[in-house]
Amino acid sequence: MIAKFRSLSAFLLLWSAWASAQQTPVPSVTPQGGVAKSLAIPDIFAEGGLTGRAPETVKWSPDGKRVSYVLRDDSGEHGQLWYIDLEATKPAVLVTSEKLASLAPPEAATGNQTKDDRDRDRRARYSIAGYHWAPDSKHLLFDAKGQLWLYRLENGTAVQITSSSDPIGDPKFSPDGKRVSYIRKHNICVRSVNGERETQLTFTNGDDEDNILNGETDWVYTEELDVRSNYFWSPDGRHIVFLQMNESEVPEYPIVDFIPQHPAVDKQKYPKAGDNNPEVRIGVIDSNGGKPHWIKLAPELEKDKDYYIPRFGWVNKDVIYVQVLNRAQNRLDLYFVEINGGRSQLILSEKSDNWIEIDDNFRILKSGDRFLWPSWRDGHTHLYLYSFNGGSPASVPAQLVRQLTSGDFEVFEVKGISESSGTLYFTANKDDDRQRQLYSVKLDGSEMTRVSKDDGTHDVTFSDDAAHYIDDYSALLAPPRLSLCDLTAACKTFWSSRDLASFKLIKPQFVDFKAEDGTVLHGEILLPLQAQSSSPAKVPVLLNPYGGPHGQTVRDRWGGTTFLFHQLLAQDGIAILQVDNRGMGARGQKFAATLRHNFGEVELKDQLAALDQAFQRFPQLDRNRLGWWGWSYGGYITLYSMTHSDRFKAGFAVAPVTDWKDYDTIYTERYMGLPKENADGYEKGSPINSAKQLRGTVTIAHGTSDDNVHMQNTMQMVNQLISAGKQYTLLV
Question: Residue 568: which CATH number?
C-alpha cells in the first residue's frame, strides 16, 4: 500500500506551523565545541538527496562473474551501467551514458500527461528493469522506452530488434538465448535475437482487446500480490506458461489530469472491496505458435472462478505448478499439472484461521524431488522442506520432510540455495525484531548460523551458484552502502552514501512499551537536544506511526528523507515518537491478526498506551502539545485518531484511506473481509463516519493522480467535514 504526493509544500507547512510555536532552537554542538551544520528542507529533498542516488537494478551476470548496476547523476536524467567482478578492486563502466542515450528514442507523448507520469512512476515503484543479461553473459538486452536493443559486450555494438509503434514490456530471453519474448498490446510475442519476423502467440478479438491480458500483470496483482510477470518459458524453451486475466467485469476509476484546458481522463481498472476481481486462468502455448491449452486444475475451480493465482511456473519441462488462493485468502492450494495429458494433482493445502501471507519463498530444488514451502502455521513465518515424486510429480501429494527454521522470529526471504553443500541462505530477524540479518541453515535442519556481521539491516542478492552475494546494508545512523561479499562475510564495499558527519545527526533511542494485554510494543523516540540537557525544557511531541498490516516502522535501518525530516523537526524543538502497534508486521501471526476485521481501534489504543508510558519515562515531553502525522495507512490512522481522541492539537494526513470500501479488494478483504460480511467493521473503521467528532486542527494532502489511494478518499472526507461544520486545510 503505497501513496504518492509530489509536493514538498505539505511538509513545509507542517514544519513551519509547529516550528513557529516553539522556543528558539538550540543548535547542536560538535565534540570540539564547534556548531554543526543544520539541516534544511532544500538539503533533504534536493535531487539526489543528502546521501546521493543509490545504484539501481543491481544484477548478477548468469555466469556469476560480474555484478552490474545503473548509477545515475543527482538529476536522475543521466546514468551509466557499471560493473564490478569478483577480482576487481573497484568498479568500472560497462556501458557509457552516451551509449545508453543513443538507445533511447525520443519520449513519445500520449497526449495524457497524467498517464505518462503514472507509467514512469509505475516503473520506478515496481523496479521494472531496463536491462537484462543474456544467458551467455556476453550480451545485454536493453528495454529503452518500449523498444528492445541487443548489446554485444565484446565490441560495444547495439542492434535494435523491435521497432513497433506499440510499446513492449516484460522482455525475457529464451533459455538458450536465441529468442526474446515480450508483451505487446496485451499479448505475448516472440522473435529471434537477430531481429527476424515477430511471432504473436496469443490473440484477443476487438471487443476484448483492452480487457484480456495475456501474460501481462494488472494493477491489483502487481500492487498487492507482488506479481511482476505473468508468463514463463519452459526449461527446454519449447513452451510458455501464462496467466490470462479477464478484466471485463472489473470497475474503472477515472484519474483526471486537470492541468490542460480540456482535462484528459485515464480510466484505471481498479476493483474496490467487494467488487469483481479479474477472472484468471492458466494457459500453455507452444513457443513457435499455435493454440493455447487451457489448464483445468479441479472441478470446483471450474464452477467458482472467484479466486487468485498469485504464483505459477515450471516444475520441469513437462509439469507446471499453480498456486490458488481463495477469495477470503485463508487457503492456499498448490497444484502440479502435466502439460501433456492434463493430469492435475493437489500437492498440498495451506489453511489459516486469519489469512495467508503470500511471498516468493516457494522453491523447487534442482534435485527435482523436493521443494521449500513458507508458512506461519506455528505462529511465525518459517520454512518447511517437502518431498514429491520426481519421476511423476503430478501423481501423489507431497510429503513433509522437516521444518527447517523455528523460533520466535520471522523468516523474510530465501536468498540462495547451495545444493552441493546442502545449505539454505535466508534473511530473518532472529536476534532482534528490528533488524534483518542473513542466516544459513542446512537442509537437514542443522547448523543455523548468522552470516552477516554488522548490526542493522542487510538485503542481499546471491549469485546463481550461491557462492557470492551483494550486501545492501544500512543502520539507524548509517546510510546505505553496497558491498560484494563471499560466504565468509568478507566484503569489499563498491558504493557508499555521501558522508553526513558534518550534520551531527541526533541519535534516536529505541524504547519498548506495553499494550494493555502485556504485548511488547517497539518504539523509537527522537528527542531535541534541549530535551536531553541537565535541565530539560518541555517539548511538544509529534506521533508518526504507520500503524497498518505488514508494515514495520521501528527498524534498525536508514530511514531516508522521512528520518532526515524528523531530524529537522528535532532541530526546531519537536520530539518525534514512532511506535509499532499490534497489527503491524514482522512480529508473527498473533501480533498481526489483532486488528483482523477491526481497523482503527487497536492501533489507536496501543499508540495512546505507549504515549502515556513515554510521558512517565520522559517527563520533558509536553502532554499539552501533541500532534500526529502519517502517510497512506498512516494518513488513515491520523484521521481516525483525530476523530476518536481529544488529545491532539494538530494532525497531518497525507493520501489517507478514509473509507475502506474505497480501497482495493486484495489488500482490504485480506484483513477486513468482504463488506457484506463485515458491515459493522467497515462502518466503525471509516473516519468519514466520525467526521463530526473531529478535534484539533487537521490538514489533508493528496495527489490527484494517485492511482493507489484515490483522491476520492479525501473528497469524501472533506464533504463530511463540511457537512459537520468542521474546519480543515486541504493541500492538493
Answer: 3.40.50.1820
